[in-house]
Specification:
heterodimer; A: 242 residues; mainly alpha; 2 domains; 2% strand; B: 315 residues; Ammonium transporter fold; 14 helices; 60% helix
Chain lengths: 242, 315
Protein backbone atom coordinates (compact mmCIF):
# COMPACT_ATOMS: atom_id res chain seq x y z
CA UNK A 1 0.00 0.00 0.00
CA UNK A 2 1.60 3.30 -0.91
CA UNK A 3 1.51 6.14 1.53
CA UNK A 4 -1.26 8.07 -0.25
CA UNK A 5 -3.78 5.26 -0.26
CA UNK A 6 -2.64 4.43 3.27
CA UNK A 7 -3.78 7.95 4.30
CA UNK A 8 -7.21 7.35 2.78
CA UNK A 9 -7.54 3.96 4.52
CA UNK A 10 -6.35 5.53 7.75
CA UNK A 11 -9.05 8.21 7.64
CA UNK A 12 -11.84 5.93 6.46
CA UNK A 13 -11.31 2.95 8.77
CA UNK A 14 -8.28 2.83 11.03
CA UNK A 15 -8.58 6.27 12.60
CA UNK A 16 -12.10 7.12 11.53
CA UNK A 17 -12.74 10.48 13.20
CA UNK A 18 -16.30 9.72 14.31
CA UNK A 19 -16.16 6.05 15.18
CA UNK A 20 -12.58 5.48 16.36
CA UNK A 21 -11.23 8.83 17.53
CA UNK A 22 -14.68 10.13 18.63
CA UNK A 23 -13.93 13.63 17.37
CA UNK A 24 -16.34 16.25 16.06
CA UNK A 25 -19.25 14.89 18.08
CA UNK A 26 -21.35 18.07 17.92
CA UNK A 27 -22.06 17.98 14.16
CA UNK A 28 -22.11 14.16 14.20
CA UNK A 29 -24.93 14.01 16.71
CA UNK A 30 -26.79 17.18 15.82
CA UNK A 31 -27.03 17.15 12.03
CA UNK A 32 -27.73 13.49 11.24
CA UNK A 33 -31.52 13.54 11.52
CA UNK A 34 -31.68 12.54 7.84
CA UNK A 35 -29.14 10.92 5.55
CA UNK A 36 -29.09 13.98 3.26
CA UNK A 37 -28.22 16.28 6.14
CA UNK A 38 -25.52 13.86 7.28
CA UNK A 39 -23.90 13.58 3.86
CA UNK A 40 -24.22 17.34 3.29
CA UNK A 41 -22.51 18.06 6.57
CA UNK A 42 -19.84 15.44 5.90
CA UNK A 43 -19.04 16.71 2.41
CA UNK A 44 -18.87 20.37 3.41
CA UNK A 45 -16.52 19.41 6.25
CA UNK A 46 -14.46 17.37 3.80
CA UNK A 47 -14.05 20.35 1.48
CA UNK A 48 -12.90 22.55 4.34
CA UNK A 49 -10.66 19.81 5.69
CA UNK A 50 -8.88 19.16 2.40
CA UNK A 51 -8.37 22.86 1.61
CA UNK A 52 -7.28 23.68 5.17
CA UNK A 53 -4.77 20.83 5.16
CA UNK A 54 -3.32 21.94 1.82
CA UNK A 55 -3.08 25.63 2.77
CA UNK A 56 -1.62 24.92 6.19
CA UNK A 57 0.85 22.44 4.76
CA UNK A 58 1.95 25.10 2.23
CA UNK A 59 2.37 27.65 5.01
CA UNK A 60 3.95 25.27 7.51
CA UNK A 61 7.41 26.82 7.17
CA UNK A 62 6.06 30.39 7.30
CA UNK A 63 3.83 30.16 10.35
CA UNK A 64 5.79 30.82 13.57
CA UNK A 65 5.39 28.02 16.07
CA UNK A 66 4.18 30.31 18.89
CA UNK A 67 1.12 31.59 17.05
CA UNK A 68 0.32 28.53 14.96
CA UNK A 69 -3.11 27.84 16.50
CA UNK A 70 -4.51 31.35 15.76
CA UNK A 71 -2.99 31.13 12.30
CA UNK A 72 -4.70 27.77 11.68
CA UNK A 73 -7.98 29.17 12.89
CA UNK A 74 -7.73 32.15 10.51
CA UNK A 75 -7.16 29.80 7.58
CA UNK A 76 -9.98 27.46 8.61
CA UNK A 77 -12.43 30.29 9.33
CA UNK A 78 -11.80 31.88 5.92
CA UNK A 79 -12.41 28.58 4.17
CA UNK A 80 -15.57 27.93 6.17
CA UNK A 81 -16.91 31.35 5.26
CA UNK A 82 -16.36 30.58 1.57
CA UNK A 83 -18.08 27.20 1.87
CA UNK A 84 -20.94 28.76 3.84
CA UNK A 85 -21.60 31.36 1.14
CA UNK A 86 -21.29 28.79 -1.64
CA UNK A 87 -23.82 26.56 0.06
CA UNK A 88 -26.22 29.45 0.64
CA UNK A 89 -25.91 30.30 -3.04
CA UNK A 90 -26.12 26.83 -4.60
CA UNK A 91 -27.84 24.59 -2.03
CA UNK A 92 -30.16 26.95 -0.13
CA UNK A 93 -32.40 24.14 1.18
CA UNK A 94 -29.51 22.10 2.59
CA UNK A 95 -27.90 25.23 3.98
CA UNK A 96 -31.12 26.12 5.75
CA UNK A 97 -31.59 22.68 7.28
CA UNK A 98 -27.99 22.55 8.52
CA UNK A 99 -28.30 26.07 9.86
CA UNK A 100 -25.71 27.15 12.38
CA UNK A 101 -23.71 23.94 12.02
CA UNK A 102 -22.08 25.14 8.79
CA UNK A 103 -20.39 28.19 10.43
CA UNK A 104 -19.59 25.91 13.36
CA UNK A 105 -17.29 23.82 11.14
CA UNK A 106 -14.67 26.42 12.19
CA UNK A 107 -14.51 24.92 15.65
CA UNK A 108 -14.75 21.29 14.50
CA UNK A 109 -11.84 19.65 16.28
CA UNK A 110 -11.19 17.20 13.43
CA UNK A 111 -10.01 20.07 11.22
CA UNK A 112 -7.85 21.76 13.83
CA UNK A 113 -6.64 18.35 14.95
CA UNK A 114 -5.46 17.32 11.47
CA UNK A 115 -3.88 20.75 10.93
CA UNK A 116 -1.94 20.51 14.17
CA UNK A 117 -1.10 16.81 14.05
CA UNK A 118 -0.55 16.23 10.36
CA UNK A 119 -0.65 19.12 7.91
CA UNK A 120 1.78 21.30 9.83
CA UNK A 121 4.42 18.56 9.70
CA UNK A 122 3.95 16.88 6.33
CA UNK A 123 4.15 17.58 2.63
CA UNK A 124 1.30 19.08 0.62
CA UNK A 125 0.46 15.87 -1.23
CA UNK A 126 0.25 13.76 1.90
CA UNK A 127 -1.76 16.43 3.70
CA UNK A 128 -4.22 16.55 0.82
CA UNK A 129 -4.82 12.82 1.00
CA UNK A 130 -4.96 12.90 4.77
CA UNK A 131 -7.67 15.55 4.64
CA UNK A 132 -9.51 13.62 1.96
CA UNK A 133 -9.35 10.37 3.93
CA UNK A 134 -10.45 11.97 7.18
CA UNK A 135 -13.23 13.90 5.46
CA UNK A 136 -14.51 10.80 3.67
CA UNK A 137 -14.34 8.83 6.92
CA UNK A 138 -16.39 11.54 8.60
CA UNK A 139 -18.89 11.60 5.70
CA UNK A 140 -19.11 7.80 5.75
CA UNK A 141 -19.89 7.74 9.47
CA UNK A 142 -22.43 10.56 9.18
CA UNK A 143 -24.12 8.86 6.23
CA UNK A 144 -24.54 5.60 8.17
CA UNK A 145 -25.73 7.42 11.27
CA UNK A 146 -28.15 9.54 9.24
CA UNK A 147 -29.48 6.44 7.44
CA UNK A 148 -30.10 4.53 10.68
CA UNK A 149 -31.81 7.48 12.33
CA UNK A 150 -33.92 8.38 9.31
CA UNK A 151 -34.98 4.77 8.65
CA UNK A 152 -36.01 4.02 12.22
CA UNK A 153 -37.10 7.51 13.20
CA UNK A 154 -39.20 8.47 10.20
CA UNK A 155 -39.38 5.34 8.04
CA UNK A 156 -37.80 7.04 5.05
CA UNK A 157 -34.38 7.12 3.37
CA UNK A 158 -33.25 10.32 1.66
CA UNK A 159 -36.87 11.45 1.72
CA UNK A 160 -38.22 8.29 0.04
CA UNK A 161 -40.71 6.13 1.89
CA UNK A 162 -38.99 2.81 2.63
CA UNK A 163 -40.83 1.24 5.52
CA UNK A 164 -44.35 -0.10 4.90
CA UNK A 165 -47.25 2.16 5.73
CA UNK A 166 -48.10 0.10 8.82
CA UNK A 167 -44.71 0.90 10.36
CA UNK A 168 -44.98 3.38 13.24
CA UNK A 169 -41.78 5.46 13.33
CA UNK A 170 -39.86 5.37 16.61
CA UNK A 171 -39.52 9.13 16.66
CA UNK A 172 -37.00 9.19 19.50
CA UNK A 173 -34.40 8.30 16.84
CA UNK A 174 -34.69 11.68 15.13
CA UNK A 175 -34.44 13.38 18.53
CA UNK A 176 -31.25 13.86 20.51
CA UNK A 177 -31.29 10.59 22.54
CA UNK A 178 -31.61 8.56 19.34
CA UNK A 179 -28.39 10.06 18.03
CA UNK A 180 -26.55 8.73 21.06
CA UNK A 181 -28.19 5.28 20.80
CA UNK A 182 -27.32 4.92 17.13
CA UNK A 183 -23.78 6.28 17.49
CA UNK A 184 -23.13 4.03 20.48
CA UNK A 185 -24.17 0.97 18.48
CA UNK A 186 -22.00 2.04 15.53
CA UNK A 187 -18.95 2.52 17.73
CA UNK A 188 -19.57 -0.86 19.34
CA UNK A 189 -19.78 -2.62 15.95
CA UNK A 190 -16.68 -0.77 14.70
CA UNK A 191 -14.70 -1.68 17.82
CA UNK A 192 -15.79 -5.31 17.53
CA UNK A 193 -14.64 -5.48 13.90
CA UNK A 194 -11.34 -3.75 14.65
CA UNK A 195 -10.52 -5.95 17.61
CA UNK A 196 -11.30 -9.08 15.61
CA UNK A 197 -8.96 -7.86 12.88
CA UNK A 198 -6.21 -7.15 15.37
CA UNK A 199 -6.36 -10.66 16.78
CA UNK A 200 -5.48 -12.15 13.42
CA UNK A 201 -2.39 -9.98 13.11
CA UNK A 202 0.69 -10.46 15.24
CA UNK A 203 1.92 -7.56 17.30
CA UNK A 204 5.09 -7.16 15.23
CA UNK A 205 3.25 -6.90 11.96
CA UNK A 206 0.97 -4.34 13.45
CA UNK A 207 3.70 -1.83 14.20
CA UNK A 208 7.36 -2.69 13.78
CA UNK A 209 10.09 -0.19 14.67
CA UNK A 210 11.25 0.18 11.07
CA UNK A 211 7.73 1.10 10.01
CA UNK A 212 7.46 3.55 12.87
CA UNK A 213 10.58 5.38 11.79
CA UNK A 214 9.25 5.81 8.29
CA UNK A 215 5.65 6.38 9.34
CA UNK A 216 4.46 9.93 8.74
CA UNK A 217 2.34 10.03 11.85
CA UNK A 218 4.85 8.42 14.16
CA UNK A 219 5.05 11.50 16.37
CA UNK A 220 1.46 11.17 17.51
CA UNK A 221 0.82 7.48 17.02
CA UNK A 222 -0.71 6.00 20.15
CA UNK A 223 0.75 2.55 19.61
CA UNK A 224 4.30 3.73 19.50
CA UNK A 225 3.93 5.72 22.70
CA UNK A 226 2.47 2.65 24.31
CA UNK A 227 5.39 0.57 23.09
CA UNK A 228 7.92 2.98 24.51
CA UNK A 229 6.23 3.25 27.87
CA UNK A 230 5.95 -0.53 27.97
CA UNK A 231 9.68 -0.78 27.35
CA UNK A 232 10.39 1.71 30.10
CA UNK A 233 8.37 -0.48 32.43
CA UNK A 234 5.67 2.11 33.01
CA UNK A 235 2.00 1.49 33.04
CA UNK A 236 -0.03 3.17 30.34
CA UNK A 237 -1.96 5.50 32.63
CA UNK A 238 1.12 6.41 34.64
CA UNK A 239 2.86 7.37 31.43
CA UNK A 240 -0.01 9.57 30.36
CA UNK A 241 0.08 11.62 33.52
CA UNK A 242 3.80 12.16 33.26
CA UNK B 1 -6.79 -26.28 63.61
CA UNK B 2 -9.08 -25.16 66.38
CA UNK B 3 -12.52 -24.24 65.11
CA UNK B 4 -12.84 -21.39 67.60
CA UNK B 5 -10.09 -19.27 66.19
CA UNK B 6 -11.17 -19.60 62.60
CA UNK B 7 -10.49 -16.29 60.83
CA UNK B 8 -12.40 -15.06 57.82
CA UNK B 9 -13.06 -11.73 56.17
CA UNK B 10 -16.40 -9.97 56.45
CA UNK B 11 -19.37 -10.39 56.05
CA UNK B 12 -19.70 -12.55 59.15
CA UNK B 13 -23.46 -12.55 59.46
CA UNK B 14 -25.52 -13.55 56.47
CA UNK B 15 -29.21 -12.89 56.09
CA UNK B 16 -31.49 -15.42 54.45
CA UNK B 17 -32.87 -12.70 52.19
CA UNK B 18 -31.87 -13.19 48.56
CA UNK B 19 -32.38 -11.15 45.44
CA UNK B 20 -35.02 -13.55 44.22
CA UNK B 21 -36.96 -13.50 47.49
CA UNK B 22 -37.07 -9.69 47.40
CA UNK B 23 -38.12 -9.61 43.76
CA UNK B 24 -40.78 -12.23 44.48
CA UNK B 25 -42.17 -10.13 47.35
CA UNK B 26 -42.31 -7.00 45.20
CA UNK B 27 -44.15 -8.94 42.48
CA UNK B 28 -46.64 -10.18 45.10
CA UNK B 29 -47.06 -6.61 46.32
CA UNK B 30 -47.83 -5.48 42.78
CA UNK B 31 -50.47 -8.16 42.29
CA UNK B 32 -53.41 -6.18 43.79
CA UNK B 33 -52.76 -3.31 41.38
CA UNK B 34 -52.25 -5.72 38.48
CA UNK B 35 -55.43 -7.65 39.17
CA UNK B 36 -57.40 -4.44 39.57
CA UNK B 37 -55.91 -3.12 36.32
CA UNK B 38 -57.01 -6.25 34.47
CA UNK B 39 -60.47 -6.00 36.04
CA UNK B 40 -60.75 -2.30 35.16
CA UNK B 41 -59.35 -2.36 31.63
CA UNK B 42 -60.24 -5.87 30.52
CA UNK B 43 -58.38 -8.56 28.65
CA UNK B 44 -56.10 -6.10 26.81
CA UNK B 45 -54.41 -5.30 30.10
CA UNK B 46 -53.69 -8.99 30.67
CA UNK B 47 -52.19 -9.25 27.17
CA UNK B 48 -49.92 -6.29 27.93
CA UNK B 49 -48.72 -7.80 31.20
CA UNK B 50 -48.00 -11.11 29.49
CA UNK B 51 -46.21 -9.63 26.45
CA UNK B 52 -44.09 -7.20 28.46
CA UNK B 53 -42.99 -9.73 31.08
CA UNK B 54 -42.21 -12.31 28.39
CA UNK B 55 -40.26 -9.76 26.33
CA UNK B 56 -38.20 -8.68 29.34
CA UNK B 57 -37.33 -12.19 30.51
CA UNK B 58 -36.56 -13.42 26.99
CA UNK B 59 -34.33 -10.44 26.24
CA UNK B 60 -32.37 -11.05 29.42
CA UNK B 61 -31.99 -14.73 28.56
CA UNK B 62 -30.94 -14.17 24.96
CA UNK B 63 -28.49 -11.40 25.83
CA UNK B 64 -26.82 -13.33 28.64
CA UNK B 65 -26.68 -16.47 26.53
CA UNK B 66 -25.15 -14.52 23.65
CA UNK B 67 -22.61 -12.75 25.84
CA UNK B 68 -21.80 -16.00 27.68
CA UNK B 69 -22.70 -14.53 31.04
CA UNK B 70 -24.45 -16.37 33.86
CA UNK B 71 -28.19 -16.58 33.19
CA UNK B 72 -30.02 -14.50 35.81
CA UNK B 73 -33.63 -14.79 34.70
CA UNK B 74 -34.47 -16.94 37.74
CA UNK B 75 -33.90 -14.08 40.21
CA UNK B 76 -37.10 -12.45 38.98
CA UNK B 77 -35.65 -9.02 38.37
CA UNK B 78 -36.42 -9.10 34.66
CA UNK B 79 -39.96 -10.30 35.32
CA UNK B 80 -40.42 -7.48 37.84
CA UNK B 81 -39.15 -4.92 35.34
CA UNK B 82 -41.59 -6.27 32.78
CA UNK B 83 -44.50 -6.16 35.21
CA UNK B 84 -43.70 -2.59 36.30
CA UNK B 85 -43.45 -1.51 32.67
CA UNK B 86 -46.77 -3.17 31.81
CA UNK B 87 -48.43 -1.31 34.67
CA UNK B 88 -47.14 1.91 33.11
CA UNK B 89 -48.71 1.31 29.70
CA UNK B 90 -52.17 2.43 28.61
CA UNK B 91 -54.32 -0.61 27.82
CA UNK B 92 -55.30 0.82 24.43
CA UNK B 93 -51.73 0.60 23.14
CA UNK B 94 -51.00 -2.04 20.48
CA UNK B 95 -49.33 -5.21 21.81
CA UNK B 96 -45.92 -4.51 20.24
CA UNK B 97 -45.49 -1.44 22.45
CA UNK B 98 -44.86 -3.76 25.39
CA UNK B 99 -42.47 -5.82 23.28
CA UNK B 100 -40.35 -2.81 22.28
CA UNK B 101 -40.49 -1.43 25.80
CA UNK B 102 -39.44 -4.71 27.40
CA UNK B 103 -36.53 -5.19 25.02
CA UNK B 104 -35.39 -1.59 25.52
CA UNK B 105 -35.66 -1.79 29.31
CA UNK B 106 -33.57 -4.94 29.63
CA UNK B 107 -31.18 -4.56 26.71
CA UNK B 108 -30.34 -0.86 26.72
CA UNK B 109 -31.04 0.34 30.25
CA UNK B 110 -30.01 -2.75 32.21
CA UNK B 111 -27.72 -5.18 30.36
CA UNK B 112 -25.61 -2.72 28.38
CA UNK B 113 -24.62 -1.10 31.66
CA UNK B 114 -23.69 -4.42 33.23
CA UNK B 115 -26.90 -6.14 34.35
CA UNK B 116 -28.63 -6.17 37.68
CA UNK B 117 -27.13 -3.72 40.14
CA UNK B 118 -25.32 -1.71 37.48
CA UNK B 119 -28.19 0.05 35.74
CA UNK B 120 -28.08 3.81 36.27
CA UNK B 121 -31.82 4.32 36.00
CA UNK B 122 -34.87 2.23 36.68
CA UNK B 123 -35.22 0.04 33.57
CA UNK B 124 -39.03 0.09 33.58
CA UNK B 125 -39.13 3.88 33.86
CA UNK B 126 -36.37 4.31 31.29
CA UNK B 127 -38.40 2.24 28.86
CA UNK B 128 -41.59 4.13 29.69
CA UNK B 129 -39.93 7.46 28.93
CA UNK B 130 -38.45 5.99 25.74
CA UNK B 131 -41.93 4.91 24.64
CA UNK B 132 -43.48 8.19 25.76
CA UNK B 133 -41.08 10.21 23.62
CA UNK B 134 -41.19 7.81 20.66
CA UNK B 135 -44.92 7.10 20.50
CA UNK B 136 -46.44 10.10 22.25
CA UNK B 137 -49.90 9.74 20.74
CA UNK B 138 -50.14 6.01 21.51
CA UNK B 139 -48.82 6.37 25.03
CA UNK B 140 -51.16 9.21 25.97
CA UNK B 141 -54.28 7.70 24.43
CA UNK B 142 -56.18 6.37 27.42
CA UNK B 143 -59.28 4.15 27.35
CA UNK B 144 -62.67 5.54 28.20
CA UNK B 145 -63.76 4.67 31.73
CA UNK B 146 -67.14 5.99 32.83
CA UNK B 147 -67.86 9.09 30.80
CA UNK B 148 -64.41 10.48 30.28
CA UNK B 149 -61.28 9.28 28.52
CA UNK B 150 -59.12 12.01 30.01
CA UNK B 151 -56.99 11.01 32.96
CA UNK B 152 -58.04 12.64 36.24
CA UNK B 153 -54.84 14.65 36.28
CA UNK B 154 -55.40 16.01 32.80
CA UNK B 155 -58.97 16.92 33.78
CA UNK B 156 -57.66 18.56 36.94
CA UNK B 157 -55.12 20.53 34.93
CA UNK B 158 -57.86 21.70 32.58
CA UNK B 159 -59.83 22.93 35.59
CA UNK B 160 -62.54 20.28 35.47
CA UNK B 161 -63.98 18.57 38.53
CA UNK B 162 -62.81 15.06 39.32
CA UNK B 163 -64.31 12.37 41.52
CA UNK B 164 -61.77 11.69 44.25
CA UNK B 165 -63.62 8.62 45.54
CA UNK B 166 -63.35 6.94 42.14
CA UNK B 167 -59.69 7.96 41.97
CA UNK B 168 -58.97 6.40 45.35
CA UNK B 169 -60.62 3.12 44.30
CA UNK B 170 -59.29 3.27 40.78
CA UNK B 171 -62.34 3.51 38.50
CA UNK B 172 -60.72 6.14 36.35
CA UNK B 173 -58.75 6.32 33.15
CA UNK B 174 -54.98 6.00 33.09
CA UNK B 175 -52.27 3.41 32.65
CA UNK B 176 -53.00 -0.19 33.62
CA UNK B 177 -51.56 -0.15 37.11
CA UNK B 178 -51.66 3.43 38.28
CA UNK B 179 -55.36 4.11 38.73
CA UNK B 180 -56.15 2.43 42.03
CA UNK B 181 -54.46 4.17 44.94
CA UNK B 182 -55.93 1.63 47.37
CA UNK B 183 -54.52 -1.40 45.54
CA UNK B 184 -51.10 0.22 45.38
CA UNK B 185 -51.23 1.13 49.07
CA UNK B 186 -52.01 -2.49 49.96
CA UNK B 187 -48.87 -3.46 48.05
CA UNK B 188 -46.88 -0.75 49.82
CA UNK B 189 -48.01 -2.06 53.21
CA UNK B 190 -46.87 -5.57 52.24
CA UNK B 191 -43.45 -4.21 51.30
CA UNK B 192 -43.15 -2.16 54.49
CA UNK B 193 -44.34 -5.09 56.62
CA UNK B 194 -41.66 -7.42 55.27
CA UNK B 195 -39.02 -4.71 55.45
CA UNK B 196 -38.37 -4.75 51.71
CA UNK B 197 -38.60 -0.97 51.46
CA UNK B 198 -37.84 1.85 53.83
CA UNK B 199 -40.45 4.53 54.54
CA UNK B 200 -37.91 7.38 54.19
CA UNK B 201 -37.83 7.85 50.42
CA UNK B 202 -41.55 7.39 49.59
CA UNK B 203 -42.65 9.15 52.78
CA UNK B 204 -40.55 12.23 52.18
CA UNK B 205 -41.37 12.14 48.47
CA UNK B 206 -45.11 12.31 49.15
CA UNK B 207 -44.76 14.78 52.03
CA UNK B 208 -42.60 17.17 49.99
CA UNK B 209 -44.99 16.86 47.09
CA UNK B 210 -47.98 17.73 49.29
CA UNK B 211 -46.18 20.77 50.70
CA UNK B 212 -45.12 21.85 47.22
CA UNK B 213 -48.58 21.71 45.67
CA UNK B 214 -50.12 23.37 48.73
CA UNK B 215 -47.72 26.27 48.30
CA UNK B 216 -47.73 26.62 44.52
CA UNK B 217 -50.88 24.83 43.39
CA UNK B 218 -53.06 27.91 43.78
CA UNK B 219 -55.57 26.09 45.99
CA UNK B 220 -53.79 26.36 49.31
CA UNK B 221 -54.11 23.39 51.64
CA UNK B 222 -57.28 22.13 49.99
CA UNK B 223 -57.97 18.45 50.89
CA UNK B 224 -59.88 17.86 47.66
CA UNK B 225 -57.13 19.21 45.42
CA UNK B 226 -54.40 17.39 47.34
CA UNK B 227 -56.25 14.06 47.39
CA UNK B 228 -56.80 14.33 43.67
CA UNK B 229 -53.09 14.94 43.07
CA UNK B 230 -52.03 12.15 45.43
CA UNK B 231 -54.32 9.52 43.93
CA UNK B 232 -53.99 10.70 40.34
CA UNK B 233 -51.32 9.69 37.90
CA UNK B 234 -48.36 7.56 38.74
CA UNK B 235 -47.45 9.09 42.08
CA UNK B 236 -48.40 6.10 44.24
CA UNK B 237 -46.89 3.57 41.83
CA UNK B 238 -43.75 5.66 41.42
CA UNK B 239 -43.21 6.57 45.06
CA UNK B 240 -43.69 3.09 46.53
CA UNK B 241 -42.40 0.82 43.80
CA UNK B 242 -39.98 2.78 41.62
CA UNK B 243 -38.32 5.43 43.73
CA UNK B 244 -37.46 2.68 46.22
CA UNK B 245 -35.56 0.56 43.69
CA UNK B 246 -32.35 -0.47 45.52
CA UNK B 247 -30.09 -0.04 42.53
CA UNK B 248 -31.15 3.45 41.56
CA UNK B 249 -31.77 5.11 44.93
CA UNK B 250 -29.12 6.43 47.33
CA UNK B 251 -27.69 4.04 49.92
CA UNK B 252 -26.69 6.62 52.54
CA UNK B 253 -29.28 7.74 55.15
CA UNK B 254 -28.78 11.42 54.36
CA UNK B 255 -28.87 10.67 50.65
CA UNK B 256 -32.26 9.01 50.99
CA UNK B 257 -33.66 12.17 52.60
CA UNK B 258 -32.25 14.38 49.84
CA UNK B 259 -33.53 11.97 47.17
CA UNK B 260 -37.08 11.90 48.57
CA UNK B 261 -37.29 15.69 48.84
CA UNK B 262 -35.80 16.14 45.37
CA UNK B 263 -38.39 13.81 43.82
CA UNK B 264 -41.25 15.62 45.57
CA UNK B 265 -40.11 19.01 44.30
CA UNK B 266 -39.45 17.75 40.75
CA UNK B 267 -42.83 16.02 40.50
CA UNK B 268 -44.59 19.12 41.78
CA UNK B 269 -42.72 21.30 39.30
CA UNK B 270 -43.53 19.05 36.34
CA UNK B 271 -47.18 18.62 37.28
CA UNK B 272 -47.94 22.27 38.04
CA UNK B 273 -45.69 24.12 35.62
CA UNK B 274 -44.91 21.55 32.93
CA UNK B 275 -46.82 21.22 29.70
CA UNK B 276 -47.94 17.66 30.46
CA UNK B 277 -50.24 16.73 33.32
CA UNK B 278 -47.98 13.98 34.62
CA UNK B 279 -44.37 14.19 35.78
CA UNK B 280 -43.61 11.26 38.07
CA UNK B 281 -41.61 9.25 35.51
CA UNK B 282 -39.36 12.10 34.52
CA UNK B 283 -38.89 13.19 38.13
CA UNK B 284 -37.74 9.73 39.21
CA UNK B 285 -35.48 9.32 36.19
CA UNK B 286 -33.79 12.67 36.81
CA UNK B 287 -33.46 11.67 40.46
CA UNK B 288 -31.89 8.34 39.41
CA UNK B 289 -29.28 10.13 37.34
CA UNK B 290 -28.32 12.39 40.25
CA UNK B 291 -28.04 9.49 42.74
CA UNK B 292 -24.27 8.88 42.27
CA UNK B 293 -23.59 12.53 43.12
CA UNK B 294 -25.88 12.39 46.16
CA UNK B 295 -24.16 9.22 47.37
CA UNK B 296 -20.74 10.73 46.86
CA UNK B 297 -21.41 13.79 49.02
CA UNK B 298 -23.37 12.08 51.80
CA UNK B 299 -20.95 9.31 52.79
CA UNK B 300 -21.38 8.94 56.56
CA UNK B 301 -18.38 9.49 58.81
CA UNK B 302 -16.81 6.19 59.79
CA UNK B 303 -16.83 5.45 63.51
CA UNK B 304 -13.79 6.95 65.22
CA UNK B 305 -12.77 9.10 62.28
CA UNK B 306 -12.53 12.84 62.76
CA UNK B 307 -14.09 15.29 60.37
CA UNK B 308 -11.62 16.57 57.83
CA UNK B 309 -10.81 20.22 58.31
CA UNK B 310 -11.60 22.46 55.39
CA UNK B 311 -8.52 23.60 53.53
CA UNK B 312 -6.30 21.65 55.91
CA UNK B 313 -2.82 20.77 54.78
CA UNK B 314 -2.54 17.23 53.48
CA UNK B 315 0.92 16.44 54.85
Amino acid sequence: MNQYTERIYNGLIKENPSMVMILGMCPTLATTTTVINGVGMGLSTTVVLVLANVVISLLRKVIPDEVRIPAFIVVIASLVTVVDFLMQGYFPALSQSLGVYIPLIVVNCIILGRAEAFASKNSVGLSFFDGLGMGLGFTFALAILGSIRELIGSGTWAGMQVMPKAYVPISIFVLQPGAFFALGCMIAVMTAIMSRKKKTKTAEQDCNPADCAGCASSAHCGKRIFEETAKAGLKEDGGDKA
Amino acid sequence: MNENIHVSSSPHIRSKVTTSSIMFLVIIALLPATIFGIYNFGIRALVHVFVTVAASVLTEYVFEKGMKRPITIKDGSAALTGLLLALNLPSTAPWWIGLIGGVFAILVVKQLFGGLGQNFMNPALGARCFLLISFTSIMTNFPQIGNSSATPLAALKAGEAVNTRDMLLGFTSGTIGETSAIALLIGAIILLWFGVIDIVIPGLYILTFVIFISLFGGHGFDPYFITAHLCGGGLMLGAWFMATDYVTSPITPKGKIIFGILLGILTGLFRLFGSAAEGVSYAIIIGNVIVPIIDKYTIPRAFGKKKEKKGGAKS
